[in-house]
Amino acid sequence: MKQKVFSISGEEIRNIDLNDVVFGREVSDGSIYHAIRNELANRRVGTASVKTRAEVKGSGAKPWAQKGTGRARAGHRRSPVWVGGGVVFGPKPRDYSYKLPKKVKRLAMTSILSLKAQESALKVIEDFSVETGKTKDLAGILTKLGNGERTVIVMKDDDVLLRRAARNIPWLRVLSYNRLSAHTLFYGKNVLLLETAAKNLNEFYGK
User: Fold this and answer.
1) Other beta carbons less than 10 A from residue 192's beta carbon
2) 17-44: b or e for each residue (b if 16 or more CB lie within 10 Å)?
3) Which residue of 68, 149, 187, 204 is most buried, as measured by CB atoms within 10 A?
4) What average pLDDT does range 60-85 have in this prediction?
5) What ranges do the domains of the chain cover?
6) Greatest CA separation found in the chain?
7) Alpha carbons 185 and 178: distance in angstroms, whole number
8) Position 70 pLDDT exceeds 90
9) Looking at domain 2-45+98-204, what is its CATH homologous superfamily?
10) Which residues pair with 124 in a beta bridge?
11) What's the mean per-residue pLDDT of the chain?
12) Taking the model in full, what pTM does it have?
């Protein structure tokens, strides 16, 4: 499929061939769901913890006699039915992460890229960098390319200066072509793909 390439000033300068396997395939909603779910699960810290009746502080002595007081029988003060007692089936530290099959992840990434191309939310931009590393300079470029909505820039490599410049723009995310995030891409309203990154994606996912 043919896609227009824009300059950083927003002008059309040439066309580029995008691999239909990567940018023009049928969208797999299921793989996108599983990829996003996997990423969110892997981010979870899983440190929530409560004390059971065996761990909570309190005497193990019987509070009062079993019979003759007129009150309900009670074994000790750490019972879950008492205020200050243990918690039944509460959370304990655990690892929520799990591995997703590589084929499912690849299918999800190509499906998201194809979806963005179908929605005209994907734009190929000539390669650029922010030599100063300043947010102001990058913001000036983005005013001609985006509209202030949630935007994702896909780089050809790990450009440290571009990442630094993008750090203070709340609606902007920066990804490398070989380390894409399904969650970030899917929820981005605009995807700005650097020209070399587009060529790299053609080869990386088009095999």
Assistant:
1) 23
2) ebbeebbebebbeebbebbbebbeeeee
3) 204
4) 93
5) 2-45+98-204, 50-90
6) 93
7) 13
8) yes
9) Ribosomal protein L4/L1 (3.40.1370.10)
10) 5, 193
11) 92
12) 0.84
